[in-house]
Structure formats: structure tokens, C-alpha cells
């Protein structure tokens, strides 16, 4: 059967760019090596062009393994824009430090190839390959500072947890294959609907697969690797892990949960709902006592994963549940897009402040408003948005989740919604504590002047403006997310 | 032939692998335990494909197993590099020594 090359064009472009970057790194010497960054940016822009071109199309290739529809295109655009932003905040960080630039950009692009594959994957095999394409370069990137004990510790912890979770997930997938006789997600759903659904062994296997993705999105109780890995890795890598790698985990979880295991939603939805409650509450409570900004952002990203898991708790099976499930998927997608904007921005400011000095205790941010009003304002906007204050996009992201709850009100949905609201209040405490340090406290003497560089400043400003503009006009995203539907039946 | 035998073998191997990952202190042995877990999955897939779905022309179970073998090789390559790097930094491959960061 012929392959539809137009459908996989973004992936092809990224692959070619990754190889070109690797070759350019070999050919260039000394300071010229930093030219690989604009090369990677250029490739990403072309990939974005091809993805936009696919908008409105419905394409299927590689049998039924690879599907391009509105849902996949929106997800791919989120990933590719995140890649652009991460390239922007990486440039100076890697050009100034004694890092392996060519290798870093190659690994970054490779990891993103896996991510753009993920929302299109409609087969267990492709999901697994995409997940590993995301993870394996990320293990190396976490340990990129080879002489740094923290970096190698981050890599080791990330690696062991990563392979353990993949092994659990694969065992679950093999059992699901044994029950259904197919690895196609739609086929699995049909086989489960036709067969004897509540076999305990099948339910256990479904849980194993979901737990595997739970590690990837750092849901409690599978979150403990995340803060250590984020704190130890180079900071742009931490930004990539906290945003893009987590979004890839959610893309896989959506495909698994809402397409393949949709007939079993009555079993996994309450489990994921309880995990969501635990994740946001514990993430927020531990974030309260962090003194290091990166660890605070790490625990806040655990809590954010909890908010994004809430819509999974609402899922229902059966043909009358399409409205609920669609609303749930759209809420997750919108939240991910908003979360990418604000979290990459926050990491970008942290890179601008810490790149030279390595200081990143929250106390070191005292008086940032005097040292660099722009960065202080940007960090304030991002933190308020992560908390969900108007007029930022964070407010609408939380609103989208609460809106998904109201589609079909249940007691469990109300419990989930009240936990979202309570946790938003807790989260404001630590976000506002940082904001207070930025604006009210005096800076220490003798701190160096900040030189964020043009690229990083541009990315931070664009993301800050984006946070506010999307807060005023959330329709810029929701117009696209609201017509997406991932469901096999829809 | 019933798939029960291969399934029991695979489950046993998988549990040995989990025990190894949790209980072993030597990072290289942790990697070997992960290999055990992945190969347990391969046994499962090949056995199901052969015994339960022999008429499946796409042999998706066995193809899946091939992919797992390939990815596992890449994973262990990266894992050994990480462990080797840790050994160069600390002269130890004991995973309990990796405790700079807590909470």
C-alpha cells in the first residue's frame, strides 16, 4: 500500500533537520558551532508550515496506524511552537557554557520527532516507538553536563524510572494484545466491546498501560523522579521535560484512554480522577516549602499535571458519552497549550537570571524588579497565569476544565471541580510569595548585571504577550481545539 | 498448546525483573533486570501471536517483539553510557550513592 508522504511531512522535515544539525556540528569549528541553532529553528519553521498545510485534512497512512486529523494537527502545532520557544531560550545557555551544542540540538529535534508522532499514533506499536523516541534522547539530554554530579544523578534517576515505566506499560500492552488479538487502537476498542469486558486480568493490564503513561506525565504517586531530574538537568532541558515531554505523555494517554480503552471508561476514569486529586494536592503542598525556583516550578508542574488529569476522571463509555469525552479531550488540549506558553516562559526567565551565576534560590530573585524590570514583569505574568489569575490564559485553562465538568454534572465531577478550586487557592500562596520577593525585597549587593540576550528576551516577551493576549482572547486557541475530536466513534 | 505456560514463564520473569530493579544496588544489575522485564514482554507477545492468533497475517505480535528488541538495545546503550559517566564522576555504580537531591 502506498505511503502518504504529505501526511508525514512534518516528521520528515524534522528528521532531515536533525541529521543536518548533526552534520553541521561536525563541519563547523569553534564559535561557528552556534549556527546549528538557527539551522534547527529554520527546520522547525518549515515543519510548522507543512503542519499548517495539513489543517482541515483527514489523512490516514501506514494502514490505519498513522492518522492526521484536526486533533493531531493542533497537538503537533503545540509541540512545534514549544520547540521554537525552547530553541530560543537554549541558544545563549549552550553557546556560553562548555556544552555539546550539536549533540544537544540533534537530541532535542529527535525527541520532538517522537512527540509529533504521538498524537497521530493509532496503534500500540507506534505509540511505544513514539514514546521511546521522546524518552531516549531525553535521558541523554538530562545528563548532558557530564562532569556535573547533579546532572548525572538526574540522568540516572530519570533513566531508571523511565525504563521501569516503559516495561510496565509494555507488559500491559502485551496482555491487551493477548486479549484482543490486535494492536490497532480502534480494533482493541471493538474487541473489548464485543467480548467479555470485565475480566480482571484485562482490567489489570489496562491499569499497567495507564500507569506507564502516569510516570511520563509525573502523576502522584509516580512523580518523585520529576523534581530531581528537573533540578539536575541543564535548564532548557528541564523546560523541555516539564512541558513538551509531559504533553507527549498526555497525547499518548488520550489516545490510549479515549480511543482504545473507551469501553472500559467506568473502570479507569475513577482511578485517574483519584490520581488527579492526589497529584494536584500533593504537588501544591510540597511546592509550598520549596526554596529553589526550579524545584518550585517542578512541583508546580506536578500539580498542573493533576489539573490536566481531571478531565480524564469525567470520561464515560457508550455512545451517549461522546459529548462528555469530547469536552474532556478539548479541555486537556487547551490546558496543555496554555501550560506550554506560561511554563516555558517561566523557565526562560529562570535561565536569564541564573545562566551565569548558577544562583536559583528564590531569595536570589529578590529585587529582580530593580535589576531587570522586564524579566520581573514577565515572571510575574507567568506565575500569575500558572496560578490562574485574570487576565491571563491560565484563568481560561482552569475555566475549560471546570466547563468540561458541567457538560454532564455528576457527584464525582463536583468533587473534582472543588479540588481544582481549592488547589488553585493553595497554589496562589507560593506563586505570590515569589512575586512578592521579586518586587518588594531588596536585591543583594554585588550581583552581576543580567544579559539575557536577544533570542531569550524575544521569546520571553512573545510568550508574555501571548499569555495576556490569550487571556483576553482565549478564542484564538479554543476556536481550533473545540472542533477536534479524537474519538473512534466520533 | 495452551498459552498458560508461556504466560506463567513471562510473568515470573517479569516479577524477577521488578524485584531486581527495586532491590539491586548495582546499576549494571538494575539494567540487566530491566532487560529481563522487556524479554518477558517479548515471550508474551510471541506466544500469544503463535498460539492464540495463528491466522493473523500481519503477525503483529511478533513484529512488536522485534521492535522491542531494537528499542531495548538502544535503551541499554544509553543506560550503560549514563552508568559509565556516573562511575567516572563518583568511582561507584551503587545506585544508593546517588542521593545528592532529596525533596
Structure, explained:
The complex is a heterodimer of chains A (490) and B (103). Chain A has one domain (9-481). The longest helix of chain A is centred in the last third of the chain and has 33 residues, at 322-354. The two termini of chain A are 26 Å apart. Chain A is 73% helix and 1% strand. In chain A, strands 1-2 form a two-stranded antiparallel ribbon. Chain A is globular. Chain A has 19 helices and two strands. Chain A has 490 residues and is mostly helical. The model of chain A has no long low-confidence stretch (mean pLDDT 90). Chain A has helices at residues 9-27, 36-53, 70-96, 101-117, 124-142, 149-180, 185-194, 200-216, 225-232, 235-260, 265-287, 293-313, 322-354, 368-371, 373-387, 393-407, 411-440, 454-472, 475-481, and strands at residues 59-61, 66-68. In chain A, helix 1 runs antiparallel to helix 2, helix 1 (9-27) packs antiparallel against helix 4 and helix 10 (235-260) packs parallel to helix 12 (293-313). Chain B is an all-alpha fold. Chain B has one domain (4-91): Helix Hairpins (Orthogonal Bundle). Chain B has three helices and no strands. The longest helix of chain B is centred in the last third of the chain and has 31 residues, at 60-90. Chain B is elongated. The mean pLDDT of chain B is 91. Chains A and B meet through helix 5, helix 6 and helix 9 of A and helix 1, helix 2 and helix 3 of B.
Amino acid at each position: 500500500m502506498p505511503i502518504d508522504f504529505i501526511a508525514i511531512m512534518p516528521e520528515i522535515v524534522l528528521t532531515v533537520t536533525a541529521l543536518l544539525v548533526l552534520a553541521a556540528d561536525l563541519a563547523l569549528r569553534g564559535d561557528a558551532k552556534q549556527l546549528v541553532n538557527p539551522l534547527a529553528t529554520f527546520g522547525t519553521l518549515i515543519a510548522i508550515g507543512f503542519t499548517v498545510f495539513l489543517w482541515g485534512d483527514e489523512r490516514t497512512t501506514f494502514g490505519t496506524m498513522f492518522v492526521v486529523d484536526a486533533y493531531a494537527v493542533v497537538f503537533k502545532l503545540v509541540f512545534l511552537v514549544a520547540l521554537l520557544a525552547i530553541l530560543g531560550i537554549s541558544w545563549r545557555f549552550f553557546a556560553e557554557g562548555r556544552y555539546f551544542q550539536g549533540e544537544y540540538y540533534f537530541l532535542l529535534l529527535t525527541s520532538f520527532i517522537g512527540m509529533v508522532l504521538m498524537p497521530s499514533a493509532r496503534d500500540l506499536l507506534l505509540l511505544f516507538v513514539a514514546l521511546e523516541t521522546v524518552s531516549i534522547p531525553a535521558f541523554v539530554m538530562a545528563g548532558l553536563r557530564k562532569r556535573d554530579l547533579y546532572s548525572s544523578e538526574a540522568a540516572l534517576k530519570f533513566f531508571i524510572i523511565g525504563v521501569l515505566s516503559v516495561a510496565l506499560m509494555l507488559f500491559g500492552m502485551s496482555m491487551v494484545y493477548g486479549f484482543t488479538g490486535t494492536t490497532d487502537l480502534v480494533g482493541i476498542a471493538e474487541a473489548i466491546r464485543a467480548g467479555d469486558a470485565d475480566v480482571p486480568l484485562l482490567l489489570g493490564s489496562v491499569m499497567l498501560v495507564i500507569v506507564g503513561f502516569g510516570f511520563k506525565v509525573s502523576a502522584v504517586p509516580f512523580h518523585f523522579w520529576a523534581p530531581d531530574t528537573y533540578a539536575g538537568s541543564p535548564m532548557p532541558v528541564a523546560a523541555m521535560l516539564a512541558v513538551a515531554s509531559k504533553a507527549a505523555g498526555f497525547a499518548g494517554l488520550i489516545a490510549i484512554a479515549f480511543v482504545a480503552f473507551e469501553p472500559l471508561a467506568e473502570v479507569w476514569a475513577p482511578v485517574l480522577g483519584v490520581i488527579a486529586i492526589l497529584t494536584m494536592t500533593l504537588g501544591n503542598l510540597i511546592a509550598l516549602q520549596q526554596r529553589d525556583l526550579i524545584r518550585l516550578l517542578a512541583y508546580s508542574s506536578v500539580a498542573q499535571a493533576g489539573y490536566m488529569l481531571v478531565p480524564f476522571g469525567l470520561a464515560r463509555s457508550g455512545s451517549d458519552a461522546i459529548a462528555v469525552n469530547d469536552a474532556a479531550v478539548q479541555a486537556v488540549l487547551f490546558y496543555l497549550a496554555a501550560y506550554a506558553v506560561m511554563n516555558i516562559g517561566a523557565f526562560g526567565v529562570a535561565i536569564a537570571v541564573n545562566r551565569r551565576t548558577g544562583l536559583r534560590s528564590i531569595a536570589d530573585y529578590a529585587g529582580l524588579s530593580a535589576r531587570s524590570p522586564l524579566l520581573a514583569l514577565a515572571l510575574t505574568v507567568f506565575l500569575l497565569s500558572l496560578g490562574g489569575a485574570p487576565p491571563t490564559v491560565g484563568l481560561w485553562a482552569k475555566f475549560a476544565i471546570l466547563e468540561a465538568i458541567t457538560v454532564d454534572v455528576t457527584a464525582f465531577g463536583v468533587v473534582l471541580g472543588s479540588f481544582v478550586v481549592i488547589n488553585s487557592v493553595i497554589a496562589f500562596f507560593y506563586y505570590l510569595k515569589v512575586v512578592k520577593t521579586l518586587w518588594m525585597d531588596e536585591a543583594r549587593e554585588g550581583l552581576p548585571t543580567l544579559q539575557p540576550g536577544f533570542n531569550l528576551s524575544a521569546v520571553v516577551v512573545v510568550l508574555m504577550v501571548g499569555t495576556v493576549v490569550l487571556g483576553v482572547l482565549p478564542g484564538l486557541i479554543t476556536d481550533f481545539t473545540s472542533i477536534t475530536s479524537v474519538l473512534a466513534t466520533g | 498448546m495452551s498459552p498458560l505456560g508461556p504466560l506463567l514463564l513471562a510473568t515470573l520473569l517479569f516479577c524477577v525483573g521488578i524485584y531486581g530493579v527495586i532491590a539491586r544496588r548495582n546499576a549494571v544489575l538494575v539494567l540487566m533486570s530491566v532487560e529481563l522485564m522487556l524479554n518477558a514482554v517479548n515471550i508474551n507477545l510471541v506466544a500469544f501471536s503463535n498460539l492464540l492468533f495463528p491466522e493473523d497475517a500481519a503477525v503483529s505480535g511478533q513484529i512488536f517483539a522485534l521492535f522491542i528488541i531494537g528499542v531495548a538495545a538502544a535503551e541499554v546503550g544509553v543506560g550503560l553510557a549514563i552508568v559509565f559517566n556516573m562511575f567516572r564522576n563518583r568511582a561507584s555504580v551503587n545506585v544508593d550513592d546517588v542521593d545528592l537531591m532529596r525533596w
